[in-house]
Amino acid sequence: MRVTLFSTCLIDLFQPNAGIATVELLEKLGCQIDYPTGQICCGQPAYNSGYLNEAKPAMIHLLETFQHAEYIVTPSGSCALMLKEYAHIFQDDSKWSKIAKSVAYKTYELTQFIVHVLGVTKIDTSLPGTAVFHTSCHMTRLLGVREEPKQLLNQVADLIIKPLKGSDQCCGFGGTFSVKMGDISAEMVKEKVTHIMNADVDYLIGADCGCLMNIGGRLSREKQPVEVLHIAEVLNRGMRG
Amino acid sequence: MTKLERKKIALPISSVYNDIETHSLKQVFIESAKLIRAEIVETTPSHLIDTLNTLIEGIYANEILSSIQDAPEQLENWLEQHTTRWNPALGNQNILTAEQAKFGITYCDQALAESGTVVLLNENNKGRSVSLLPEIHIVLIPVGTIVPRLRESMRQLHQRIKEGKEVPSCINYITGPSNSADIESYLVVGVHGPLRTIYVIID
Amino acid sequence: MSIKIKAGPFKKRMTAELKNDFMRKAVSSAQDGLGARRNLATDQLGEWEKWREAGQEIRQHTVNNLAHYLEQFSEQVTKSGGIVYFAKDDLEATRYIKEVVQKKNAKKIVKAKSMVTEEIGLNAALESIGCEVVETDLGEFILQVDDHDPPSHIVVPALHKKKEQIRDVFVEKLGYTKSADPDELAKHARYTLRTKFLEADVGITGCNFGVAESGTICLVTNEGNARLVTTIPKTQITVMGMERLVPTFEDLDVMISLLTRAAVGQRITSYVTLLTGPKKQQEVDGPEELHVVIVDNGRSKILGTDFQEILQCIRCGACLNVCPVYRHIGGHAYGSIYPGPVGAVLTPLLDGYEDHKDLPYASTLCGACTDVCPVKIPLHGLLLKHRQAIVETEGKAPISERLMMKAFGFGASTNSVYTGGSKMAAVSLKMLLKNKQMISNGPGLLKEWTNSRDFPTPKQSRFRDWMKDHEGANSHD
Fold first, then answer.
1. Is A126-236 a domain of CATH 3.90.1150.10?
2. ipTM of this model?
């Protein structure tokens, strides 16, 4: 199966390991990865701040880059959501509306793709230890991907996923919110970290790099010994090719 | 007035309709009433007077106000003897009586099983104050007045309007004693309305 | 009071409120408690999603046909003996109400809780003509006695107050001699206010729902004060936001079922009171005269715009109770009597962007509000629309941010710029490294991040560089 990867700017610049794990994981699951190097950013940072006109060039560039893909897979819930929004954003655009609808339709978040398109719910891998899973707001509430990551993680041998208090409360990232309203963002992430530390775990696992950078950044500031992993890194770890 | 087109939406059901398949309306009503801190007394038509005598604990008639009209003979006699009646001819004096009263006794016109609610249609001059100003509200609930939930009650009101009839100037849906959580989210029972509500279910 | 409660920049209010430990603890605790009760009540009811859809249809249909239902409602109020007055704005509303009060030579007024009366500044207007206006809802009474401290929540207005603070105020202003125990404080309020109810000339209420088919005013309460306000005084004035209608009693069933559960997790409140017209001629208690003042004050301007759905709001407060931002900054930080997500959408619409342009940005667009709204208002979507309006049409975004976003647009659409930029970032930020992996003291905007969190360094070798060399993958232009 041919999969076109949208790696996202955050992974490209700050968390390449998550991208590498995604590629290796999909290849082990029998996919052939197509990577158009023209890809840059889905446009979220500008779009969510209200800068529609400034975001459009980035979006159009992405539409150009991915228009011929069969499956677009991205290891980011919020970026997958943004691509799905293109259908609405470009609906009155005579040039791009059809392509935007098509791109939106064939975009998948990673775990969504693994479970629903590849039909895989158990990946033969192990990670001894305890973890909490951070459910990011855009991925759960807005994209509707709630059970898929849990399904996959529950099958990872030797890994115990503990419940996380306040799991449906936002971690405070919100893209530019984290710097525009830095003080409020800080209080939100502090509360999130308190809940994580109370769970007493080895790992924090998530499927959105923005959230992981935010929470990871606070864990690091507090010098907490919790390792932060993207779900792709967990599923790829120790998995035989 | 022309009626407008509306989108057809499936009317949602409530779990109470399941509950009343396995339990009686009375049972469901009592369970709900317990949750909202009403005091529940079950009695029969023949034991009603005894029940009322126990409830009023030797308080005198001038401190017991009643708005009940057209009561069956035994009850009517008891009310005459032991309570002050809401009497429109006395005007505002009634309100002062209500303010001084320890008990206010009314019937209910309907009761809602889902929430333990009693419905008082203040028509035919029954006096809004009787269920409001006294410290304790005693409401007589004939078991036949219990319906599943708000839906049945509202449907009847809608029907009255459709038939061109009037609705009463005041309808009260009362669920237990008054309360408030305005102070540090702590639940205070008994604020401006009655401090206690006694449901006398007559079966 | 009017919509605005605190002047000055949002940042200043927000910083001050973040330091208010008591408020933050009270708000988190209330959110957790109300949230749990709400979930219990909606689970118990069953099919909550279907209920929300029904609620959305009712309110959307009503707002889409508002003129029709307002006409029907006011005809019915008149038919049942009430007097209707349409007020274009706060001044018209208060002017009319002052006239009614003066005609009656009324001096003593009791009020049930009503956000719209705060919006139009009614209390101050009545006090200016020598009336005593007493708030009778326990929370509002406490705030009024405490020198008109503004509300911080639309359902539990005194959420930010400690019981010891309340006791001190009662001691100072009401001759109170007992403890800070909430039961005793409430008892004293009951005792103090009883006299006020009995002596009042005029009773003023808001309106949770107006039923168009019958001209009925529906009040949804717990304390009993709204009943007293509408039973004893001889004149009743009900103030209603023009959008607060439902077509029929059958619709009212759905709305009450949604409101009480979404707001406070109750199957129904202690009192739901349906008032149709003044008292009948032969009746003893109830008002002899009923005035219904229907307030526009900017609502009609919202009709036909992208923001119309906010008029579906039934003021349940559920969005406040799930908002992670409200959780930390509380109601006063919003600077409006309408705080939280609904306030962030509504306040700029009623009071303009000038003083309120920060509010739509006080959100991560997490969608919790949209998820919980019983009438399915897309709240976070409306916040985004505000941001777009602030940037595009209003031109109120800070210039430095505009330039940055323009640069973003360019850099995120042009590969050469992106490549150059990202490689440069890696090099220049390296100078800020405390250790090789994390930045803990960033420049400019990054400082907002690094004040409380470490920031990862941009990697010299980006993912795409690895990808280029990765065998088996098709990396192409």
1. no
2. 0.97
